[in-house]
Amino acid sequence: MSPDDPALIEAFRRGDEFAFVALYDRHKSAVFAYCAKMLLDRTAAEDLLQETFARAYENRDRLLNSTSFKAWLFTIARNQCLNVLRKRGREVGFAPDAPEPPGPGATPFANLLKSEQAELISRALAELSPSYREVVVLREYQNLSYDEIAAVTKTTVSSVKSRLFKARRKIGELLRPWLRPDEAPGPSAVPTTATVAL
């Protein structure tokens, strides 16, 4: 949080339009990124970005203090995302055109360029349940603390840590055929030691 955020937030709580615009400009990218990764849909994320800030403005009197603003904002965004996911009624899985795992002996850097890595991570996130996906997104992409994530998800820090551990393990399992082709079924391959950053 920037040093002037508390003053801006206090002004926002009093209904200051300029403070609201400043906070929107400061936090819109993070909220959009969160919604896009939760919904796997940039168009829907753009709609929810606007809806999140509209609801934040309408309910600004419910913000208890300036230190909780970020968690409060992500709680609103989370609720909007979960509403959309419930309406969809299903989770999006791996697309039929997912890249094939690398063949035996292939080096990780020859098979996984940065753009491909990002695509693989997105596809792995799509395989996670919303409760697992959100803790990964909030921790790895938004850099929220465990306490902040617990506040956003209305759960405990121990529950957040547990979900994050299980989510990371699931992502590792999903990405293993691409990261460690020597462990995939088939002829023996040259061992590799690649990692993909979230």
Structure commentary:
The chain is built from nine helices and no strands. It has helices at 5-13, 17-39, 42-58, 69-88, 108-111, 114-127, 130-141, 146-153, 157-179. It has 198 residues and is mainly alpha-helical.
Strand content: under 5%
Could you say which overall geometry the principal axes of the C-alpha atoms support? elongated
Total beta strands = 0
Which residues form runs of ≥5 with pLDDT under 50?
A: 91-103, 185-196
Count of separate DSSP helical elements: 9
Can you write the helix and strand succession as a string? HHHHHHHHH
For the sheet with most strands, the description reads:
none
Q: What is the straight-line distance between the termini?
A: 23 Å
Q: Roughly how much helix do the residues carry, as a percent range? A: 55-70%
Mean pLDDT: 78
In terms of structural class, how would the helical and strand content be classed?
Answer: mainly alpha
Q: Any idea what the radius of gyration is? A: 20 Å
